[in-house]
Amino acid sequence: MSLIATLARMEALREGRARPLATVRHRHLSERPMVFVPLTTAGEAGAPLGALFGTDREEPTLLVVPQPRDRDLRFAFLAQLAQGMLPYLEGYADDVDVEVRKGKDPETGEPVEVERELCRDAPQLLVPNGSGVRYVRLLGRSMRFRRTAEEAPDEPYPVPSRVPLLGRWMTHFGERALTPGSCLLVSMTDLLSRHWASGQSGLEDQHLGALLAWLDPPPGVHGSEAALRAETARDERGLLECPPAGPATDPAFDNKLLAPAITRYDAGLSGAERAVRDLVGSQLRPTWDHVWRGLDLLRELPPGDRVAARWEGDRWSYTGHRDRLRAGEPPQPKRDDAVTAAAKLVRRETDQVRLDAHEALDDPLVMAERRLAGEAFAGEVVAVEMAYSEGRSPRPRPLVSVSTHDRPHVEPGTRVFRRLAGKAQEAQVAAAEPGLVVVRLVNQMGRGRVPAEGTVPEPGDVVCLTAFEHDPRPAAPLPPPEETPWTHGGPPGEAAMGASAPDPHTAEDYL
Amino acid sequence: MSTTLESRLAALRGSAPPRPMDARTLAALAANPGCGRRALLDAAGVDKGAVAEHLGRPAPFGQSQFSIVRGNAFEARVKADGCAELLRLLCERLGLPAPDEAALPDLSAVGPAGRAERTRQALEEATAAGGWSLLDHPMLRLEVAGSAVHLEPDAVVVRPDGRWTVVEIKSFPILDGCADPAKVGAAARQSAVYVLALRALAERIGRGEPEHTVVLVCPKDFSNLPTCAAVDVRKQLSVTVRQLTRLTRVEDIVSELPEGTTFDLALDDDRRTPRRPVEELAAAVDAVPAAYAPDCLSVCELAFHCRARAHECGAVEALGRGVRGELGALASVDEVLAAAAAGLGGAWQADGEGSAPAEHVSGGGCGVGGGTDAHGYAEDGGDFGGGDFGGGDFSGGDRRDFGDDAVTWRLREAARLRAEALAGTAAGGRA
Amino acid sequence: MTAPVGDPSAEAARVTEEILHDTLHSPRRGVVVDSPPGAGKSTLVVRAARELAAAGEKPMVVAQTNSQVDDLVKRLAKEDPRLPIGRLHGSDSPPDPALSELPSVVLSSSVGDLAGREVVIATAAKWAFVKDVPAWRHAIVDEAYQMRSDALLKVAGLFERALFVGDPGQLDPFTVVGADQWAGLSYDPSASAVVTLLAHNPELPQHRLPVSWRLPASAARLVSDAFYPYTPFRAGTGHEDRRLSFAAAGDGSAHDRVLDLAAESGWGLLELPERRTVRTDPEAVAAVATLVRRLLDRGGRTLSEKGTAALTADRIAVGTAHRDQAAAVRSALAGLGVAGVTVDTANRLQGQEYDVTVVLHPLSGRPDATAFHLETGRLCVLASRHRHACVVVSRAGVERLLDEHPSTEPVQLGVTVKFPDGWEANHAVLAHLNERRVRYRP
């Protein structure tokens, strides 16, 4: 955590409510997101207990598994989930722009123009917290290798059709969520804690109810008190007044209410199913409302200038997955091959650098953190001295002196950048002493001997220079998987293909 | 443990029966080794959960009966048919052919000491016999700071070559070869304690070779079929060994407590209702220095009490261990805010209360923060350089440069930059 | 662990011959060489490159940073001024201007321009952009333990076989984004290149350079025990072969006493009173600067197998964990009128060698230890740069800090536990330093 963020938390602690960590919104918010609040059964891996989901705040769909150990009931739940979610997830697939890119003819290698579709918008799945994101991954994993009766007539426990497809979408969204700054699947706690500092630790911020208590405490109540209430207040039955935001349930709820209700359901008592449904719904609804409340707060912030550009990356990701489904590719394997893993890592690193740069350029409060860290500096131009490069056709290389309170970690030769008409203008530090940095501008000044109008700052201008690049360069290419070198085990063989085999079953109804 | 210490600890516990230490509490020593409060209460066998409850800040821990049922069912499945499946898995993991038969010695006896003795015999016999044996829920004994602690691993396997392997059965899944790293870490720390106890036993009986790689048995993927993984616990072993030797510091903590301190809940005749005045109990708890950090919330029953105290003191650790890194010697939120306020031309003093620079609130006074100040810098001679601190200018009251100026400068800068950005006057960003 | 016997030169020469033999003649596609600090890694790389070139193999050489590449080019050109060398570089990262003075070296950002050169040297990052060229028959990969697995994946298609050389004890490669999902995979892209290579090719011949020519006898044992517990090495020189002395006697100050102690025993710890401080603890920084000033003022002289020499500023380095600490030390040194002393972080001191080092302990004055500060490689780099002596400056209380460090590390299945553990290595080094401690109260 940066010192500025620490300070913000301390301010929040003193004032009793959250304080801003950003002046703009750094994440894309869909106009029509789908909120998904799942609950899982304690002790079982990937046995859903129920979920609230939908795009309409007032009318969520409630799905409940009255006996989570019953395979048929679980499959019925997943089928209904697929039925409810897939139209939304697939609903952006056909509205496309066509982009023309330069490419190579696969036969001749000649440069040709390649048309590529890009979906104009993409779905956005919002879950309450980080465990919710991981649960989407887990659900995706549990569904995508299942077989339907149509696919495999001999399958002893076929799943309803469309369930494996939902598994593949959830896997894709879960995987994309690991990319820094991506927005196809995001958690509300992450969104809120990116933009506001509560008066508690990051660990405690994982509790959506407590975090919202800091953002929006009842009148006259200190945030820490409101948060404590959200964490621990129990009603006369011993149940948490603010149920956990899932997917884990409150053990007291399990033991005191849910277990007896499921026992009654097992005994076939009338109204028992309804009772389980109401109980699970009662645990889900407060979290559902919290997620939408969080969304209200986020929508009050204006979006950062570069948010849309990053959302385009999500749209490409969505379009790419659409294309793989349409091409009939098999489900994502259980584990990545060497090339895919390396490609993802490199991609995420590039995206992290880009996100950090974008946020700083979009938001003076983020830039302040970089300035304090010595990675950028701002100040007033106090002198501009014209100079030229050596050589036959000298180019302008003006020296700009910037007076600053900042203490950047720069030395002569350090490359620095400033924003100029939507691009990054590069400069080289010529001299640095406390309070004054002299830089030599090296590009973006036009083609002539005289710099183009407005490309060189003037005395009195306030400038901000960063020691980080504004758009990271693309990483070096990786070989195709079939050319995986001997150092990494050679091309993935049949063994890797078996990585998409279905999971074993047991006859019992335990998972 | 000296008898005086033992009796002091008994007095601290009061009339309640002791909660014996087990592998979990021993493993927990490493979770926050700087916390004297936890070390002392665990050593004294105090029921921290009951204390927290009476203090009005119970920890919201609990276990769902669903997971208990599932865990028991899984262990029963793994150990069905004379542990045949378990042995098959184990041999597969070790690359050995599964034995036709393995001995399953009966370990039942009266009381933990009796069971520990029975386990010793069984291990000795099994090792001498040179075949496969599987000890189901053996009882091990470990001397900790002078007293005996009894430990019960899920199983110990004796191999024909005399090697002993600890087996832990957990109900979290191994999915595509991966398991929750936090849960595996906890299992590794717990297993390391068992390995330690086995080592002590092997040394005592002069045979047997406890392995530092333990076997974790978990459900595979989404099924209830078992699978297993080997976990190297050498790191956890070395940490545990060191922390166990440090347990002697409990003696120092006890010696600094006021005479008559006790955590007795003074249960009523019904043996359930505590009658101890809450303030009195709180005073006793707070007399023991703690080192609260938010990580405690998920592992220690007293954490909500300690958090409340940390907040009252404005301890910066309450916002996370990591925040201290840039704050130098500043230990309280008020101090930090006061130092930062100077960067805003004192603007903060005007609004809101509590902005006046606080007296130096060190950890010690509040019982949190665990030794933030210079202390224990005894001028003991005997090292190279003897007792005199070279340099000569060793005059106490001088103003010393601890870097507080640097902290203050950075805080002021942070406050200035933050205020500028929020006021929309900053350069950079959307400029 | 058996005590080393025999003549270190002969032992080292024997191992080098084996390595070169395997490099030129092994039927396997790779050879891995572990090189502890100062064991002659660069010498080996230069020699292997020359022998491969002499055998008509025209090797490519992969190093990790531009300065490593530049250093290798200079060394190679110096050893064999007639060997045609190609230095491949990025278009916006020009090589050291000194290289253009070397007649045998051709510089280019395009590999096509370097086709006829006997040896072509570039960073892994630059090699990764080379494509559509016939594969090299031989490559030498330098600092292979600092290379990430994904970087090797990008360049391994360029060569048929390779000699991998590196120091397993230095700083591991890392990533700032999450890579947990690949933990336990043999080709985890965030792991070290050597880990991946050996996981897939366990049959490759592995060698270890057995002798450190840099570290004095006083340091080799400690560094070997603390950081290379399963792959011990020894010093190439005996206790009597290296000597550090001062023309001027000490003035009785703590600084001078700790310098005398370090001159005599190879190590010294200047311990300041316990205090929680900022990273740029001014008292500790001042103590570091004063130590350097006194080293120079007292007319240090070094005696070694290379002869006697004055201890000059360029033979002294200051090592820190963080950049701002290095900056603070630099400005403190400037304030004392000291110039020419290298001050840098562990990352940048990797591979460097000095006569005397002054180290600001990574845990000095800290409220807690973090994974960064506990990283084994960081301490190893700082404690293994010197030929004569290393003086550590630290606040008291580091031992307690280590003891109170919460040990709740997650454990990933299938990941080989790396030894030594930073926590244990820190304890080991501290225990050794505590016996050579001078307390100092500013």
Automatic annotation (TrEMBL), chain A:
<feature type="compositionally biased region" description="Pro residues">
    <location>
        <begin position="474"/>
        <end position="483"/>
    </location>
</feature>
<protein>
    <submittedName>
        <fullName>Uncharacterized protein</fullName>
    </submittedName>
</protein>
<feature type="region of interest" description="Disordered">
    <location>
        <begin position="471"/>
        <end position="511"/>
    </location>
</feature>
Automatic annotation (TrEMBL), chain C:
<protein>
    <submittedName>
        <fullName>Helicase</fullName>
    </submittedName>
</protein>
<dbReference type="GO" id="GO:0005524">
    <property type="term" value="F:ATP binding"/>
</dbReference>
<feature type="domain" description="DNA2/NAM7 helicase-like C-terminal">
    <location>
        <begin position="208"/>
        <end position="395"/>
    </location>
</feature>
<dbReference type="InterPro" id="IPR041679">
    <property type="entry name" value="DNA2/NAM7-like_C"/>
</dbReference>
<dbReference type="GO" id="GO:0016787">
    <property type="term" value="F:hydrolase activity"/>
</dbReference>
<keyword id="KW-0067">ATP-binding</keyword>
<dbReference type="Pfam" id="PF13604">
    <property type="entry name" value="AAA_30"/>
</dbReference>
<keyword id="KW-0378">Hydrolase</keyword>
<keyword id="KW-0547">Nucleotide-binding</keyword>
<dbReference type="InterPro" id="IPR050534">
    <property type="entry name" value="Coronavir_polyprotein_1ab"/>
</dbReference>
<dbReference type="InterPro" id="IPR027417">
    <property type="entry name" value="P-loop_NTPase"/>
</dbReference>
<keyword id="KW-0347">Helicase</keyword>
<dbReference type="GO" id="GO:0043139">
    <property type="term" value="F:5'-3' DNA helicase activity"/>
</dbReference>
<dbReference type="Pfam" id="PF13087">
    <property type="entry name" value="AAA_12"/>
</dbReference>
